[in-house]
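Before our next group meeting I need something from you. Please put the record directly below this note.
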Amino acid sequence: MVDVAAIFKAYDVRGVVPDQLDESVARATGTAFVEVLDVLANGGAVVVGYDMRPSSPALAQAFAEGVAATGADVILIGLASTDQLYFASGRLGLPGAMFTASHNPAQYNGIKLCRAGAAPVGAESGLRDIADLVAKALAEDAPARPITGSITKQNLLPAYADHLNDLVDLSKCRPLQVAVDAGNGMGGHTVPAVFAGLPIEIVPMYFELDGSFPNHEANPLDPKNLVDLQAKVVEVGADLGLAFDGDADRCFVIDELGAPISPSAVTGLVAVRELAKHPGSAVIHNLITSKAVPELIAEHGGRPIRARVGHSNIKQLMAETDAVFGGEHSAHYYFRDFWRADTGMLAALHVLAALGEQDQPASELFREFERYVASGEINSTVADQAAAVAEIERLYGGREGVTVDHLDGLTIDGGDWWFNVRASNTEPLLRLNVEAADVAMMVALRDEVLAVIRRPA
């Protein structure tokens, strides 16, 4: 019996194939998806895409059959990045399902679900109800229902590429050489289509679609997976490096010296560009992006709005505030012009346009967006997370000039430094992020807080 509760997470479905996630689970999920979203009364169809993992086509087909067994129709867009699926959901006005495990290892697969217009489906917005129906269907082991809806195929990759290029004008961009590491993921599928016709010379790395990830994990958030790209940028003298994760919805940037650009700096740059087009707009940033981000937003006439970590929180706030853009520390970038969904590819086009419209190298271009020194996220195994957080608040919260808030975990702000401690939802971990005005201050604060977190019980 499949442990449904173990694979239905807060924002998506994720599990090992076939032990936790197989075609029977995918088929039951398709049927439950139609019932929970009342698809037959709202458009009557679902759009489905999948990544390059060996198990993805069969899982997507089983899901499609589960949808079609309810009488709803299915539009299969085939191989796709996650943001390409969001595009299809937005353009067609239909709910969607993307089969991917993003940056997880090869033995995993998963499903990202959305409502029409790429609106998120999470635990509190339908996913838990879908899980309940899936668990019931698997327990009853009922025979497969006959397929009464249609399953058709449609190639939306050219339309996706055209839409992105309509949103960012690269007509004034000088010729650039850009090394791109697709990590054997879906960037190898989407980058050639999106960059076709642009004044960009691509130096491709690992564009072959291969869900076994023979070169490195498709997770650019881990520094070791950027090493090959950093070396290639320096080797060929590229103007920039771009790295995409497995489902190509996140993009990381490397400057011409081979140094990583923080996602906070990318958030700041894109925010400034969007505010130039939409003066006075709100821009969302999660609470562990750099303090430079709200400063830049305010300096350019925007309204910075701080959010909890997580795409459902960002998307909800964007809808409530009509924000033009949102950015997270994890390199997820959200655009009002893209149905408030996240697309690393659109962020990459903004970076290329900003670089190509002036003569400075990337390292100089981003200097004004990198104002502080950050630790990056540091995870520690802690048995009693609540007690550790309470001790940290006791030690730091009463200091003069310090502010404390609990928007997402515990944030302590000392003016020229801040740190946030958040408990993992699924593991006995505490996540620490520290930022300060200089390296010495950041290191001292980081080590001081870590000593409290890791103090023996």
Observations:
- The two ends are 38 Å apart (CA to CA).
- The longest helix spans residues 23-37.
- The mean pLDDT is 96.
- The domain at 4-155 is CATH 3.40.120.10 (Alpha-D-Glucose-1,6-Bisphosphate; Chain A, domain 3).
